[in-house]
Each structure stands twice: as C-alpha cells, then as structure tokens.
Amino acid sequence: QVQLVESGGGLVQAGGSLRLSCAASGSIFSINDMGWYRQAPGKQRELVATITSGGSTNYVDSVKGRFTISRDNAENTVYLQMNSLKPEDTAVYYCNADVRTGLVYRQVYWGQGTQVTVSS
Known about the structure:
Radius of gyration: 14 Å
Shape: elongated
Mean pLDDT: 97
Strand content: over 45%
Number of helices: 0
Largest sheet: 7 strands, mixed
Distance between the termini: 41 Å
Helix content: under 10%
Low-confidence stretches: none
C-alpha cells in the first residue's frame, strides 16, 4: 500500500506565498509522474502542475510564472512553491503520483488534500 501525505496549506493574503509538500511512502518500487491538482468550491478538479521523474514540468496557464513544481526523488516527495497568490487560487490542493510497486504493477495514488485560502 502507498500513502501520499500533503502539508503546507493555510491562509495567506493576496500576493503572499505558500509551499506545499507531498511525501509518498509505502511499497514503492519507483515513481513516474507526480503532480498537483486543485478543486475550488463548485468547480471541477483541475490540473495545476506535473513533473516527470526526469524533472520535466508542465503548468496550467493561470499559474505559469507564479508556481514552481519540484521533486526530491530520493525522498519520494513533490513540492509546489506558490508565489504571488491570488484569491482565485483558493482551493483544496491534491497531489498525485504514478507509482510502480513492482516490475509490473502500477497505480495512481492521491493525497487527502490540503486547503489553500487566499484573502483579498
């Protein structure tokens, strides 16, 4: 079994910064892509950023230039540095990871979510 545990959410004023962390643990053989998604009240979950095991990144247009995704492969941890936060960034943020637990078995796991609230 694999678990993803997120931390770092909270309340911040517009223009401020937060850093989210997500640590994967359990029966991990390797991790492929890792990512961050968010879901605002009344809206569908949307992709925020992804990062491959080699470090290639992808961002939704609304966060480009403000958010940075990174990972520590040795610690099975993914980070999301969020700068210049806006009220529209308010959402529950979820991490996910494409995990191999053996040579064959592969599954995408999700964290429990962490609330980010940006006040105007």
